[in-house]
């Protein structure tokens, strides 16, 4: 019975290791894309022309029509069209158009660059959190033990990375709000807060389990 249970735990640990590895690959791709965005944004923004009377956007001599309403934006390049429907994104699009029309491109570039820098920071911290918690899954699958002291330490370190994610995300929402002249929102992810609490609880459970195992020998 105990052997069957241990095998199931090992299979689960290996599965979670594979999942976290895949997630980390996607995070690396996301970081690369955002870093590319940081480089390309000034070039792209400098080559955007806006005509609000004709409701046209010209990007590298490619003209696009846009239709703005209170709840959505429709953009058409002659071949394809897509819609922006999220309230915050519609508002941000409207503000960017106003900035570009008023030739305040520097403000747009700074605001977007800040958003991308904070985005890279959050994804990097999340990557470190996933890499750290992955060590727990590797330990369980390779050492066939759950209650190792180092597993407890890995969980606490993962929780610290998640706290950093919460802080950076909060600062990002405030700074980008100021940069875009929008309402400042103190965005705190409830799921991240719950994750931190759960990780600390598990860390102390693992530490207690490790102490009990040592006393039993």
Q: How would you summarize what this structure contains?
A:
The protein has 217 residues and is of the alpha+beta class. The chain contains five helices and five strands; from the N terminus they run αβββββαααα.
Overview of this protein structure:
The chain has one domain (2-47, 103-216). The protein has helices at residues 2-46, 87-101, 105-143, 149-179, 190-216, and strands spanning 48-51, 56-59, 62-68, 73-76, 81-84. The protein is of the alpha+beta class. A hairpin with a 4-residue loop joins β3 (62-68) and β4. α1 packs antiparallel against α3 and α4 (149-179) runs antiparallel to α5 (190-216). The protein has a five-stranded antiparallel beta sheet.
Rg, alpha carbons: 24 Å
Structural class: alpha+beta
Low-confidence stretches: none
User: Can you give the helix content as a percent range?
Assistant: over 70%
Taking all residues together, what is the mean pLDDT?
82
Largest sheet: 5 strands, antiparallel
Number of helices: 5
| Strand order in the largest sheet | 1-2-3-4-5
- How many domains make up the 3D coordinates? 1
β-strand percent reads: 5-15%
State the end-to-end distance: 21 Å
Number of strands: 5
Shape: elongated
- The ordered string of helix (H) and strand (E) elements is HEEEEEHHHH
